[in-house]
């Protein structure tokens, strides 16, 4: 009787498959027919379909797609639909993203309503005003008994659809509405306490005639709310004062709210968020996203002196100065993610304090090198100390004030070995690298160094070389090395 190897046991093999990326699963599936049959459900569990012709996308036939569709649990369908979508059956489908519209889509959702747990759906503008289509959509979505997450963009809610919406929202834990027109009076008066399960709420580009106060009324029926995203508001004069006054007043109905993202146009003053922070005396904040608001000395001073200093984990800020970015990295010990517009090398090098956020996993910032010839190596060394870093995005400065240098004189980090790239060799957890709109001129040596020292690297953003043919060659080296740039993930259907 032959000895049984541990990998021959289905339980062990299936457990290992949970930790392998798709490209490694496909390699293992070629070992034998037994391995192929065992790993096929893991290979096809998540599928991202891209428009035909996308760079690096793989072409599969409809027959193969239909044959293995029984394994699909997550489907992201981007681009135009095909007629066979109307007859496709995915009995295990739980997570669905659709960015298209045609007669097959509604029927596809209807046939998978018993298994769907998450639905992301975008309606094209030419159909956003179709009352019949919108009514049919809400009717079908309401019939999904297991649905917990709903993200809808580009439609509107009429008085006829309102009862179905209230009933649907009562079962959700995550609700995101973007580019929605509420064409009905008294939205909040009809709601009651029907959304007691919602923990994540996002309102973006809400249209119609609903004033700010009415939008905030929604918070009264979300007592379990943990995260609020409220953005792309157009406010003037008294409305800006209302935001400062009303936001603390209504968020008191959400005692568990610890994550806040607010974007207001035009830009609010530095103290615009201060009343809210002062109102959260018993609730330590974990996330602040103020992309359209100035986050200045007043708000920062309050955070330093409050319990938010030790609870904040995620910061997404716009308009702050470089020295404040350095202050944040040296002050918030539990920070895991920060997105900021701008910092200069002198802000870092002239401050002897270390970055105490050792658990930082995401850093997105523009680093302007005033002393490029002498500072690149030292900046790389400082970045190399962030050993938990998983995402590093360096880009052009988003906004320039009077303290910013002209863009044609701004110098950026160059990811070359002769400039200090080797100092990042300890970033073994790095999975995403972004060099957006930066002037990189990498060689094959640097690309192979990244593949060797960053084994988890899966996504690459931005140009790797100013020469288009060289840039494409470097990208194909990444693909051949099983490191797939983000824009190259997915398949196309013939």
What's the gist of this structure?
With 494 residues, the chain is an alpha/beta fold.
What does this 3D model show about the protein?
The protein is an alpha/beta fold and 494 residues long. It has a domain at 11-43. The chain is built from 18 helices and 22 strands. α7 runs parallel beside α8.
Task: Give the key terms.
16-stranded parallel beta sheet, 31% helix, two-stranded parallel sheet, 494 residues, globular, 19% strand, disordered C terminus
Query: What portion of residues is helical?
Result: 25-40%
Tell the overall outline: globular
The N- and C-terminal alpha carbons lie at a distance of 48 Å
Mean pLDDT: 77
Total helical elements: 18
Radius of gyration: 25 Å
Oligomer: single chain
Largest sheet: 16 strands, parallel
Uncertain runs? 53-57, 183-188, 399-403, 483-494
Derived structural class: alpha/beta
| Order of the strands making up the biggest sheet | 1-3-4-5-6-8-10-11-12-13-14-15-17-19-20-21
Number of strands: 22
In percent terms, what proportion of residues is strand? 15-25%
Topology:
Layout: H1 10-17, H2 22-29, H3 33-43, E1 46-49, E2 58-60, H4 62-67, E3 74-78, E4 95-99, H5 103-111, E5 118-122, H6 125-128, H7 131-142, E6 149-153, E7 156-157, H8 162-169, E8 174-178, E9 181-182, E10 200-204, H9 212-216, E11 227-234, H10 238-251, E12 259-265, H11 274-279, E13 287-294, H12 297-304, H13 308-311, E14 314-318, H14 322-331, E15 337-339, E16 343-344, H15 345-349, E17 362-365, E18 367-368, H16 372-384, E19 391-395, E20 432-436, H17 444-453, E21 459-461, H18 468-480, E22 491-493
Helix pairs in contact: 2-3, 7-8
């Amino acid at each position: 009787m032959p000895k049984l190897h541990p990998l021959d046991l289905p339980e062990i093999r299936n457990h290992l498959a949970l930790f392998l990326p798709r490209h490694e699963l496909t390699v293992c599936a070629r070992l034998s027919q037994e391995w192929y049959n065992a790993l096929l459900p893991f290979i096809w569990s998540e599928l991202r379909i891209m428009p035909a012709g996308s760079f690096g996308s793989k072409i599969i036939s409809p027959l193969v797609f239909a044959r293995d569709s029984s394994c699909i649990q997550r489907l992201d369908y981007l681009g135009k639909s095909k007629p066979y979508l109307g007859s496709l059956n995915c009995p295990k489908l739980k997570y669905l993203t659709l960015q298209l519209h045609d007669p097959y889509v509604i029927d596809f959702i209807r046939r998978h309503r018993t298994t769907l747990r998450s639905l992301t759906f975008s309606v094209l503008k030419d159909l956003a005003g179709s009352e019949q289509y919108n009514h049919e959509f809400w009717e079908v979505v309401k019939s999904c008994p297991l649905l917990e997450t709903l993200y809808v963009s580009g439609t509107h809610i009429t008085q006829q659809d309102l009862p179905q919406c209230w009933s649907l929202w009562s079962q959700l834990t995550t609700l995101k509405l973007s580019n929605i027109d509420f064409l009905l009076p008294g939205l909040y008066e009809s709601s009651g306490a029907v959304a007691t399960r919602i923990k994540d709420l996002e309102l973006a580009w809400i249209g119609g005639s609903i004033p700010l106060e009415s939008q905030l009324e929604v918070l009264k029926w979300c007592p379990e709310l943990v995260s609020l995203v409220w953005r792309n508001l157009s406010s003037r004069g008294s409305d800006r004062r209302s935001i400062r006054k009303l936001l603390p007043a209504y968020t008191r109905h959400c005692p568990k709210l610890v994550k806040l993202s607010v974007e207001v146009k035009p830009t609010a003053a530095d103290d615009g968020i201060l009343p809210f922070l002062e109102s959260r005396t018993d609730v330590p904040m974990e996330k602040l996203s103020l992309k359209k608001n100035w986050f200045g000395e007043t708000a920062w001073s309050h955070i330093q002196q409050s319990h938010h200093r030790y609870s904040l984990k995620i910061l997404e800020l716009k308009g702050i100065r470089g020295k404040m970015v350095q202050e944040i990295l040296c002050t918030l010990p539990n920070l895991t993610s920060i997105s900021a517009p701008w910092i200069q090398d002198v802000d870092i090098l002239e401050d002897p304090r270390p970055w105490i956020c050792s658990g930082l996993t995401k850093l997105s910032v523009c680093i302007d090198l005033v002393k490029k010839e002498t500072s690149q190596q030292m900046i790389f060394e400082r970045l190399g100390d962030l050993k938990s870093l998983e995402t590093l995005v360096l880009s052009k400065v988003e906004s320039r004030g009077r303290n910013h240098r002209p863009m044609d004189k701004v110098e950026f980090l160059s990811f070359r070995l002769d400039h200090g790239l080797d100092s990042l060799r300890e970033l073994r957890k790095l999975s995403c690298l972004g060099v957006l709109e930066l002037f990189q001129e990498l060689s094959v040596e640097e690309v192979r160094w990244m593949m060797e020292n960053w084994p988890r690297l899966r996504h690459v953003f931005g140009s790797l070389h100013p020469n288009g043919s060289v840039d494409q060659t470097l990208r194909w080296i990444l693909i051949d090395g099983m490191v797939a740039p983000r824009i190259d993930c997915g398949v196309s259907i013939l």
